[in-house]
Amino acid sequence: MTILDGKKISNDIKNEIKADVDKMKAKGEKVPHLAAIIVGKDGASLTYVNSKVKACERVGFESSLHKLPNTVSELELLAKIEELNQNDDIDGFIVQLPLPPQIDTQRVLNAVDPDKDVDGFHPTNFGKMALDMTSFIPATPFGILELLERYDIPTKGKHTVVIGRSYIVGRPMSILMGRSGFPGNSTVTLTHEFTKNITQITSQADIIIIAVGIPDFLKTEMIKDDAVIIDVGITRVPDENAEKGYVIKGDVDFDQVSKRASYITPVPGGVGPMTVSMLLKNTLLAREMHRRKANL
Ligand code: NAP
């Protein structure tokens, strides 16, 4: 069994991006600028945003954080998005989710300029992805593709079962694994809450990608020998013995499943760190696209 070391690969990617940024600096070119909008003070959201800002510093990107109160109106948030859309200094930006209930999340995501949509959530980018066109691929699925590619895990003709159909992980993952090329060319089954006899389906899978947010959901009796297991889940489970008062759990019963799998991602240290690196990669691609456009 091989552990897919997301921490190491993510570090490699950051080093590669930093080398590109150093070249830009040496040529006197503008470096990529990633901005983030955060609404409210949710602990997990603040942690994620801060790790993105820190990652920008690490690779030499510019970054800016735009904080709005939890009481912000949809109109005010849309005005902030328009401001970032119009700001030529910003190459890409993200709106940290979740948003408070008074805000229509899809309307907000639709307002982001698709050329700056480094999260890949805008319908234009999602549609392009489904049509095999160049686009920003959502960072978590992009990170999973990168892990499969760098560990050279065969996907052609394999049966990939995706568990969970969220717009940010499961749904795009099911599209990407079925596209032509590598990683791809899989036969994909997308499962969700209403899927019947899920064990019958998962036990036929060569590759399982799970994003449900239920700790230890995937048990060893649900997989076949030598399956490839990608665990996207991140749940904070209260634990009074832990320093922070909680531990992070994935969706896979790692101790048991890892004994049967051929490759498996740990939580933490698997898919999680990849997500931030792929966001940086999308921002680098955005900078390159804007540079080319400006030179036309
Ligand atoms: P989500 O919006 O929380 O939705 C959960 C999905 O799981 C839904 O599609 C739901 O089906 C499905 N589901 C729930 N119970 C199920 C069951 N019994 N059998 C099969 N499917 C079931 O999903 P998400 O945003 O993708 O998040 C999932 C997990 O991944 C969370 O722990 C989240 O924190 C984590 N995550 C991690 C990263 C990372 O960087 N590593 C990034 C994003 C998310 P229905 O559609 O039928 O309700």
- Name the CATH architecture of the largest domain: 3-Layer(aba) Sandwich
**Structure classification:** alpha/beta
The CATH H-level homologous superfamily of the largest domain: NAD(P)-binding Rossmann-like Domain
Strand content: 15-25%
| Helical proportion, percent range | 40-55%
What strand line-up does the widest sheet have?
Answer: 1-11-8-7-5-6
Q: Low-confidence parts, pLDDT < 50 over ≥5 residues? A: none
Count of helical segments? 10
CATH fold topology of the largest domain: Rossmann fold
- Total separate domains: 2
Radius of gyration: 19 Å
Q: What ligands can be seen in this structure?
A: NADP nicotinamide-adenine-dinucleotide phosphate
Largest sheet: 6 strands, parallel
Please describe the topology of this protein.
Elements (H helix, E strand, L loop, with lengths): L1 E2 L2 H21 L6 E7 L3 H17 L2 E7 L5 H13 L5 E4 L9 H6 L12 H8 L8 H12 L8 E5 L6 H9 L8 E5 L6 H5 L4 E4 L17 E4 L3 E4 L7 E4 L4 H4 L5 E2 L6 H25 L1
Parallel strand pairs: 1-11, 2-3, 2-4, 5-6, 5-7, 7-8, 8-11
Antiparallel strand pairs: 9-10
The chain binds NADP nicotinamide-adenine-dinucleotide phosphate.
List keywords for this structure.
globular; alpha/beta; binds NADP nicotinamide-adenine-dinucleotide phosphate; Rossmann fold; 2 domains; 10 helices
What does this structure look like?
The protein has 296 residues and is α/β, with parallel strands linked by helices. The protein folds into 2 domains: 27-113, Leucine Dehydrogenase, chain A, domain 1 (Rossmann fold), CATH 3.40.50.10860; 139-271, Rossmann fold (3-Layer(aba) Sandwich), CATH 3.40.50. It is 41% helix and 16% strand. Helix 7 (170-178) links the parallel strand 5 (159-163) and strand 6. Helix 2 crosses helix 10 and helix 6 (139-150) crosses helix 7 (170-178). It is globular and about 55 Å long.
